[in-house]
Write a structure and sequence with these properties.
Layout (H helix, E strand, L loop, with lengths): L17 H22 L7 H12 L4 H11 L9 E9 L4 E8 L2 H15 E4 L9 E10 L6 H11 L3 E4 L3 E6 L4 H10 L6 E8 L8 H13 L3 E6 L3
Antiparallel strand pairs: 1-2, 1-3, 2-8, 4-6, 4-7, 5-6
Length: 237
């Protein structure tokens, strides 16, 4: 699984520069805006918005930024409409790549994404060309420390409705059905769990070894630096 490899693109605002944090907050603000557009500004009635707020808070996004994003999306502070566009293609060494974007200018975004694929990979493909190689799951991650042992985390997660828990050197990764994502997160948070990452993600079914590591790293970095790109998923290991 890509989430367990050295190529994992887990985004954390803690410890990043101001410019990097600003980029992360911009991306999170767009996710919040889309959630408001789809389900309203009341987080009590909008599960997707609750999930976005939880994700933003885990990345240390200030509450004033979150509130401003909600007000902007609801029209109180002007409005920008973002369109969701997903691109699929192949990176170096035949690695499957999915790029999720939120954009207010699809021509600009398409040009940028195509350029990165062409320069650092094998090129942009047609819709569906690699999507079948991934599963969509709810993924929650928390720091691995001495406060909770693996058995306790496993038991609490399964009781909350999760499917599996995997322990890595640095963190626990809890996976669940997307329909149960909100309830699993909220149940575990009520028990005191604090997640540094919680989102619906594309998880690869199979993986491919990356040989040209420098080129692959550059591709991921360029995608992450693009403001329109929300998430990048791949099956490289």
């Amino acid at each position: 699984m890509a989430g367990h490899s050295k190529w994992s693109q887990i985004k954390r605002a803690k410890g990043k520069t101001d410019a990097q944090r600003a980029k992360i907050f911009t991306k999170l603000g767009r996710e919040i805006a889309v959630a408001v557009k789809l389900g309203g500004s009341d987080s009590n009635a909008n599960a997707r918005l609750r999930d976005c707020i939880a994700k933003a808070r885990s990345s240390n996004m200030p509450m004033e930024n979150i509130t401003r994003s909600i007000k902007k999306a609801s029209g109180e502070l002007g409005s920008i409409n973002y369109e969701t566009i997903v691109y699929e293609g192949y990176g170096v060494d035949g690695v499957a790549v999915i790029v999720e974007t939120l954009t207010d200018n699809k021509n600009r975004t398409a040009s940028d994404v195509r350029h990165i694929f062409d320069k650092y990979g094998a090129g942009l493909g047609v819709s569906g060309c690699v999507g079948f190689l991934f599963e969509t799951k709810g993924i929650l991650r928390l720091e691995a420390d001495s406060k909770r042992d693996e058995d306790t985390v496993m038991m609490d997660a399964l009781e909350a409705g999760a499917d599996d828990v995997i322990r890595t050197e640095d963190f626990f990764e809890i996976s669940c059905n997307t329909e149960k994502f909100s309830s699993v997160r909220e149940t575990l948070e009520s028990k005191g769990y604090q997640f540094f990452s919680s989102a619906i993600e594309k998880v690869p079914v199979t993986t491919i070894e990356v040989k040209d590591t420098d080129k692959f790293t550059k591709m991921l970095d360029f995608f992450e630096d693009n403001d329109d790109v929300q998430n990048v998923y791949h099956n490289g290991k």
